[in-house]
Amino acid sequence: MARRIVVVGSINMDLVTRTNKIPIPGETVIGGDLQTFPGGKGANQAVAAGRLGSDVAMVGHVGNDVFAQQLRENLHADGVNHTCVTEVEAASGVALIVVDAAGQNSIVVAPGANGWLTPADVQAASDMIKSADVMLLQLEIPLETVECAAQLAHQAGVCVILNPAPAQLLPASLLQLADVLVPNESEAAVLAGLPIDDRRGLKRAAAKLQSFGVAIVILTLGSRGTLLAQDGKFTHYPPFDVVDVIDTTAAGDAFVGSLATALAEGSSVENAIPWGNAAGALAITRSGAQPSLPTRQEVEALLSQATPDQMEGTNL
Ligand code: RIB
User: Fold this and answer.
1) Catalytic residue among 14, 55, 78, 253
2) What separation in Å is there between the alpha carbon of 223 and the centre of ligand 1?
3) How far is CA 147 from CA 152, 162, 232, in A?
């Protein structure tokens, strides 16, 4: 039987320009041409999993503007079921993104329609949610909607993966509903309320997050790989080498979508992490959010060249 992933989250149009340097407050800089790419953390993660061949459904909102049809068509093109993506009287979500010469980005999201996704919309999609094996959640929709989705999935025995991005403090009641928490370093520091300055700080933050009731914490560390905290153990997975970083936008989404695909296919968390790392590494070699997300063939090709450390990790 096909294993299904359901994503409850944001759908954005990304308006992107490249500059040599990201402006500081009060500064104006001249950028390159304006580019538009479909994005949004929720939709990116859905497309990331869809491109790897998963059976994926999305629950979300688009607006009633020029972007809506394109955003929906894009989900469709990657095989994402969008019957629970509904249109509301608002602007579609938009992200204003500046990417610098090193491929690092700065993002401001205008949530628009995403801000109108309510617990009632989640309830309306309850059949879709209960029939899934894995749920993906992020924080670009109202928190009460995230909580409702997590609750519904948890009660139905669906594995809940929470990517707490963008960073914000979360109630323990929500964290307890997550089976797997996937923050980056800055999100982990905010959630744990601890500074992360070194390896000790990383372990301390991961352990603190586990103390809120999440059994599995996966900390994505960008160019330093990934840390898994599980069963009282910490395992570090080194990254895949990337010679030319073009654009880091959606690298985290590529990781989460790929991790979810591997978990939905029955992999252990330990075996799913290299899938996430490989997809993240491939995503940063290309521009844009969804255009950068890799195919299954690309991920498998990179995994076939992985070292034992990259596949199995090392104890920290
Ligand atoms: O994670 C990258 C995404 O963040 C972008 O696609 C943008 O839409 C924002 O949601």
Assistant:
1) 253
2) 19
3) 9, 11, 27
What is the 250 CA–ligand 1 centroid distance (Å)? 6
Q: Is the CB of 12 under 6 A from ligand 1?
A: yes
Cα–Cα distance, 149 to 90 (Å, whole number): 22
Q: How many CB atoms lie within 10 A of CB 201?
A: 16
Instruction: Pick the residue whose CA is nearest to atom 1 on ligand 1.
Output: 250
State which of 12, 140, 286 you would mutate to test the pocket of ligand 1, scoring each by most atoms of that ligand within 8 A of its C-beta.
12
Q: Tell the residue nearest (CA) to atom 8 of ligand 1.
A: 40
Q: Which atom of ligand 1 is nearest to the CA of 97?
A: 7
How many angstroms is it from 204 CA to the middle of ligand 1? 28
Question: Could you tell me the distance, in angstroms and rounded to a whole number, from the CA of residue 232 to the centre of ligand 1?
Answer: 33
Topology of domain 4-11+41-87+115-315 in CATH is UDP-N-acetylmuramoyl-L-alanine:D-glutamate ligase (3.40.1190)
pTM of the model: 0.97
Ligand 1 contacts CB of residue 55 (under 6 A): no
Burial 175-187 (b: 16+ CB within 10 A, else e): bebbbbbbbbbeb
Return the residue matching tokens 């509904």: 86
In tens digits, the chain (316 residues) has pLDDT values of 457 999 999 999 999 999 999 999 999 999 999 999 999 999 999 999 999 999 999 999 999 999 999 999 999 999 999 999 999 999 999 999 999 999 999 999 999 999 999 999 999 999 999 999 999 999 999 999 999 999 999 999 999 999 999 999 999 999 999 999 999 999 999 999 999 989 899 999 999 999 999 999 999 999 999 999 999 999 999 999 998 999 999 999 999 999 999 999 999 999 999 999 999 999 999 999 999 999 999 999 999 999 999 999 999 8
Whether the Cβ atoms of residue 5 and residue 261 lie closer than 8 Å to each other: yes
Active site residue 253: yes
Straight-line distance from the first to the last Cα atom of the chain, in angstroms, rounded to the nearest whole number: 38
